[in-house]
Amino acid sequence: MILREFAQDLTELCFHTPLASGRPLRWTIIANPTAGGFTIRSRWKKHQTALKDAREIAAKKARRDNAGPSQTAREADGSSGDLGNLGLIPTREPGHAGKIVRALLDEAGAEAGSSFHLLITAGGDGTTLEALIPLFEAPPVLRSRFAVLRLPMGTGNDGADAWELDKALELLLYPTRIERARALRLTTRTPGKGPFLAFNILSVGLDAFVTHMTNKTKNKLPGDSYKLWVDIASLLYDRLYRVGPLEVRAFDGTGRTVQAFREPLLLLAVGASGRRTYGSHKRILPDDRNVCGVKQMPLLRKVALKGLFTTGGHIDKPESILFTADRVEFRGEYPILAQMDGEAILLTPEDFPGTIELTDPVIPVLKRSL
Fold first, then answer.
1. Cβ(80)–Cβ(37) below 8 Å
2. Distance CA 198, CA 80 (A)
């Protein structure tokens, strides 16, 4: 069983990790069994090798006696207990990852000791998004007892802590520090519609349409359905969604206006920082600037530029508008799709103005110590 083998290897890494070495460590692995890293044979074989290599390195380190799976993981396993005793909980339905994290927060809140919780997500960006929202919303005193490790086990892993599994596992093998990462929040004018959170990139326009259609068809179309919908959207997006002017105003952390323009935009993307990707490593934000707008353009120009979003070469083209901002407000005359780390919603003119803003640093993530 792939999940059991995966959990056994990760368990050995957790027993030998230097993370929070002075405190009892409790780990929980939230794994999406339908993620491509498990179901696509070639990817699993590569991950299998990375896990075995990491396990060999871990075996040479001291085994800690103050570590073990969380109570939440052990209680969630209603079958033989094999996976629960290894700290792994497979997700069964949409929203399950969030339920698991809420149970973990309850467990941490009820503990009398000083145990530290390591939350490992093993899936795609959707699994990570579901898991991080409850952690973001938790009281700071509870968040201070957690760290998150996001393993790249999906087909698109732009929100993971590394693109390759061997690099992500190094965060368990070697000394790390905990940094607080920002999130992105989308609010609308409509009561009850939002706020929506993202932890990598939050955007509106053509790329959100690609996300929406990919989510609708990924279980029905063979191969890379995201790439297919990128190709289709280049031809059809502005026939399905009217691309009118978006009025955009952007501000820095002090409230000073850094950009103001009104342009017909194909997309507007805001990252939790610069140097971020989406759509399986499309370099929409290839430098330190965290906002990118792309103007409407003729069909042949779209076809010509489409490939540049993989390399980041689009930032040198006149159709691109890049800058740095903490808050971006936008409004338009026509409906437009928005996406938050791969989850899409439709915004209508009644929802405007929409606001995308950086939150305070909240999510505890692992970084290699210098």
1. no
2. 36
Between β-strands 88-90 and 116-123, what pairing exists: parallel, antiparallel or unpaired? unpaired
Topology of the domain comprising 2-174: Rossmann fold (3.40.50)
Q: What is the pLDDT of residues 205-247, one digit of tens each?
A: 999 999 888 888 876 665 567 777 888 888 889 888 999 999 9
pLDDT of residue 232: 85
Which CATH number does 184-358 carry? 2.60.200.40
User: What gap in Å lies between CA 271 and CA 265, rounded to an integer?
Assistant: 17
Q: What pLDDT digit, counting tens, does each position of 259-279 carry?
A: 999 999 999 999 999 999 998
SS3 256: coil
Helix (H, G, I), strand (E, B) or coil at 175: coil
**Residues 277, 278, 279: CA angle, nearest 5 degrees:** 135
Return the number of other C-beta atoms located less than 10 Å from residue 219's C-beta: 8
Number of C-alpha atoms within 13 angstroms, CB side, residue 190? 12
Q: Which two tokens stand for residue 77?
A: 């396993």
Q: Can you give the residue ranges of every domain in the chain? A: 2-174, 184-358
Amino acid symbol at 199 = F
Question: What is residue 158's predicted lDDT score, i.e. its pLDDT?
Answer: 94
pLDDT at 224: 62
> CA geometry: angle at 291 spanning 125 and 349, to 5°?
85
- In angstroms, rounded to a whole number, what is the distance separating the alpha carbons of residues 256 and 341? 28
pLDDT digits (tens, 9 = 90+) for 128-148: 999 999 999 999 999 999 999
